[in-house]
Amino acid sequence: xxxxxxxxxxxxxxxxxxxxxxxxxxxxxxxxxxxxxxxxxxxxxxxxxxxxxxxxxxxxxxxxxxxxxxxxxxxxxxxxxxxxxxxxxxxxxxxxxxxxxxxxxxxxxxxxxxxxxxxxxxxxxxxxxxxxxxxxxxxxxxxxxxxxxxxxxxxxxxxxxxxxxxxxxxxxxxxxxxxxxxxxxxxxxxxxxxxxxxxxxxxxxxxxxxxxxxxxxxxxxxxxxxxxxxxxxxxxxxxxxxxxxxxxxxxxxxxxxxxxxxxxxxxxxxxxxxxxxxxxxxxxxxxxxxxxxxxxxxxxxxxxxxxxxxxxxxxxxxxxxxxxxxxxxxxxxxxxxxxxxxxxxxxxxxxxxxxxxxxxxxxxxxxxxxxxxxxx
Length: 376
Ligand code: GLA
Description:
The chain is α+β, with helices and mostly antiparallel strands. It has two domains: about 5-195, Ribosomal Protein S5, domain 2, CATH 3.30.230; about 200-365, GHMP kinase, C-terminal domain (Alpha-Beta Plaits, 2-Layer Sandwich). It is about 45% helix and about 20% strand. Strands 1, 2, 3, 4, 5, 6, 7 and 12 form an eight-stranded mixed β-sheet that branches. The longest helix has 25 residues, at about 255-275. The structure holds alpha-D-galactopyranose (GLA). Alpha-D-galactopyranose binds near residues 119, 162, 164 and 326.
């Protein structure tokens, strides 16, 4: 994993990097769009990682394995509107806390697919935050790295995301998912010993703006409207399920459905953590399918490819499946009994090809660990 980033660094800059750091992508088992609404999320890191190889320098030059040549970046100028913005965002946020080097050369290489809803951007920002702060001689803990990475994406790049992706990329533990209560900041490890299947819809969704920002505005509008009735309500996920009937009368239909998704998803996510802790994968699977239905009908962030993969997975023997990540494209996570994996994947491939005329990319992963130093 490290080798390509280090080899790219040597090829690009004609020297050995001072260090290399990698951070994982993630799948979210349950808790979609709850992280910017004060609710819980249940992500796990995947085995696909992004590696940053870096060395101290007098200027800032960034190179990606995907493109030839290094880009010289003025980190104080306007953002370039490409992948370097994520690294520049990290540099600026580290500078704000006095934890950035004076300059750096870095190369990145990644096995996290981009635009597949698997959080390639958080893998990059978290790895860059750890690498660059280490070059400055600073050792930031996992929460601090997640916060720098979050601000880079949210405040600098302008994606109105929550904190789930950066938190799991930073703090993940092998063979565990994390139950992250975003309102309190409490994080609990939940054992996740098995494999999950990831099926890419092949529809790419890049998050720089677009639907996620639009949904967030809808959530803010819904919260403002509900606070006229419940002034103490400080986040949509805190609305009691028993108040949904009244909320329906107060809100336009689309906003009500967004709220209903968040309230039911909050309950599902906490129940999912209980099911996982009990090793009850069948119960977890049912929650995944209920979550998918809620995404499709209430949050309206699913796409036909994902709906088909979920239906097909269940028909061929999966415990459950669900579009993971922001949506409007991306990947479906499928939970199957260990012995049924092959049958399920073959069935999905067949059904998907019949409907969309192509075979989806699919692979399995275990819950992996968070950001770490790699050998150079
Ligand atoms: C994106 C965001 C996350 C989260 C999910 C939806 O991945 O980066 O913070 O909001 O969408 O659950």
